[in-house]
Amino acid sequence: MRLGLILILIWLAGCAAKPKKIEIDTAPVDVPEKVILHPPPPRALALIEIEPWAVITVNDGDPNFCVSTKGYEVLARNNAQILRWIRDAGDLIQYYRGLE
Question: What is the number of structural domains in the chain?
Fold first, then answer.
């Protein structure tokens, strides 16, 4: 019982105290412009020239383009580089779209 009275007295004494006045000082703040980091552009394509193509005509008269095994490897490397460049350019576009 005494503990309850003591707690009520402390609570009333805390509520009776006059709160301090808070002074708010405002001043304009300079906000720096948003810095946009520019990622590097995709690496340039370094395509290798393919050996001359051979054109063979089949019985139907439809032309077929032929290339040697080495030429086919070069063609595959060139295609891989083109696909890499497209993927890198797409990533760059996604980055700049994310800034909007």
Answer: 1
